[in-house]
Amino acid sequence: MPEPITIEDIRAAASRVSGAVLHSPCHHSKTLSQITGAEVFIKFENLQFTASFKERGAINRLVTLPQEGRRNGVIAISAGNHAQGVAYHAERLGIDATIVMPANTPFVKVQQTRAFGAKIVLTGETIAECKPEADRIARERGLVFIHPFDDEAIIAGQGTLGLEIAEDVPTAEAVVVPIGGGGLISGVAVALQAVLPGAEIVGVESERYASTSDSLAGRSRAHLRNVESKLTVF
Q1: What do you get for the CA distance between the two ends of the chain, in Å?
Q2: Helix runs in the chain, H state only
Q3: What is the pLDDT of residues 8-42, one digit of tens each?
Q4: pLDDT of 107-117, one tens digit each?
């Protein structure tokens, strides 16, 4: 089993990504504060070059590659943000990148990822269906697979966002984090528990795609519910 991510891992990641990603601002939202009755701050990760926090994990993973990995290149599966984060920073570092995307990925996302120099492979209808093809290509070409969330370096990179929150809003009582694959909230939770231990960490996901709450409740797989789209907080 891999070792758990520590605050030292995240601080090391912060040092590596400094200058390569933006220390995005946390601005007070008057509108949301009025709606909720709380003092709400928003962290603007959309100001990253590829408009997503995914860059943080991507660059941290890429700069920790051994020389052979850099020389052979990397491969990832993604329909958008992870793809662009890996492709953009791989191009910056002179690393060849291949991205396997679902065949139904919107053309603009394919085009944007290809614009960063990545080779694009379109296959299947879902990210899960892309994985076998990515594994096959990785074996044949000796590429390093860059997982979108289940990777220690990816998680540590995403956790740098938590360090910035603690620095910019040290009085924060709760930090609300969206959950997809879980890489972001994992890294942020480790960071905040170390540097802002009084803050409650709240994970949020769509009730229609509640994979994390399904898992915590012991349901074996996430499923699409015939319900109105709203948020589940746990």
Answers
A1: 27
A2: 7-17, 30-36, 54-63, 67-72, 81-93, 107-115, 127-141, 152-168, 183-195, 211-216
A3: 999 999 999 999 999 999 999 999 999 999 999 99
A4: 999 999 999 99
Report CA-CA distances (Å) from 106 to 48, 102, 103, 122: 21, 9, 9, 11
**65, amino acid identity:** L
Q: How far apart are CA 93 and CA 19, in angstroms?
A: 13
What the block records as the tokens of 110 is 């394919």
Q: What is the pLDDT of residues 133-174, one digit of tens each?
A: 999 999 999 999 999 999 999 999 999 999 999 999 999 999
Ordered by where they begin, the domains of the chain are 7-49+151-233 (3.40.50.1100), 54-145 (3.40.50.1100)
What six digits make up the tokens of 219? 């349901």
Rg (CA), the chain: 18
| Calpha distance 165→149 (Å, rounded) | 20
Q: For tokens 């603690």, what's the residue?
A: 166
